[in-house]
């Protein structure tokens, strides 16, 4: 299949057989949201996240876009610089998220702004995701979305609800704003989840969700970053299939992704491979 790379075919076939033998009753999915369930490129333009739509369409105060871009320019190179020790980068990411949340609050973020952003045509689900979510619902397979989204849980809930895809088997762990009676953001609940803290965001810390998956120890993990494999930290799984979405800079980043993931979906492609894989377990 085009744009699919299985890094170790023999091991992957062994994992498939274990998943088939145990059945879907033992299975759950663990996924990032932005650039994993959604596309990174739409009409040739890079669309990083729902929050970029909020920034680029002037929904907040006039000074918000410039200040948000300045934070990105300051902190993003540090996030991607692997020569900087991990703990130092983690602290920097925590600082970035905290400053950005403070900026959003000062810029009068309202729930209505998030509603406008999720309706924007630039944020598009990856091809095949609708079928995937419907199949998971039909077969009662839990999907845990663990996201460091800058607009948090509400944005993902609204996005899926708008498309009639917010099913009962979908559970979202993300940053959560506190809102006042007029719908304005006034704070963010802690701990803050950022791109490098997913190994510290343990599903066990969310008992309502953990109860749904604690006995489903065969896991398919989906992520667009090597750091996304840390989402499984603290979960006592039996078998794990890691599927990575390498959307750009394929040649440059290939080796690192091959070491981290069992399967690579390249060039912002569809999840047809994953849908076929799930059908083989049903």
Query: Which of globular, elongated, flat, extended, rod-shaped describes the shape?
Result: globular
- Ends apart, CA distance between termini: 21 Å
CATH class group: Alpha Beta
How many helical stretches? 10
CATH fold annotation? Rossmann fold
CATH homolog superfamily: HAD superfamily/HAD-like
The domain tally reads 1
What level of helicity do the residues show?
Answer: 40-55%
Major sheet size, sense and barrel closure? 7 strands, mixed
Estimate the mean pLDDT confidence: 91
Provide the CATH architecture: 3-Layer(aba) Sandwich
Quaternary class: single chain
CA-atom Rg in angstroms: 19 Å
Q: Give the SSE string.
A: EHEEEHHHHHEHEEEHEEHEH
Provide the spatial order of strands within the biggest beta sheet.
1-11-10-9-2-5-6
Residue windows where pLDDT falls under 50 for at least 5 positions? none
* Number of E strands: 11
Structural class: alpha/beta
Beta-strand proportion: 15-25%
Describe the structure.
The structure is a single chain. The protein is of the alpha/beta class. It has a single domain (4-45, 124-281), classed as HAD superfamily/HAD-like (Rossmann fold), CATH 3.40.50. The protein contains 10 helices and 11 strands. It has helices at 9-22, 50-56, 64-80, 86-106, 111-118, 129-138, 152-162, 207-213, 250-260, 272-281, and strands spanning 4-6, 27-31, 41-42, 45-46, 143-146, 170-173, 177-179, 185-188, 218-223, 239-246, 263-266. α7 (152-162) links the parallel β5 and β6 (170-173). α3 packs antiparallel against α4. The radius of gyration is 19 Å and the shape is globular.
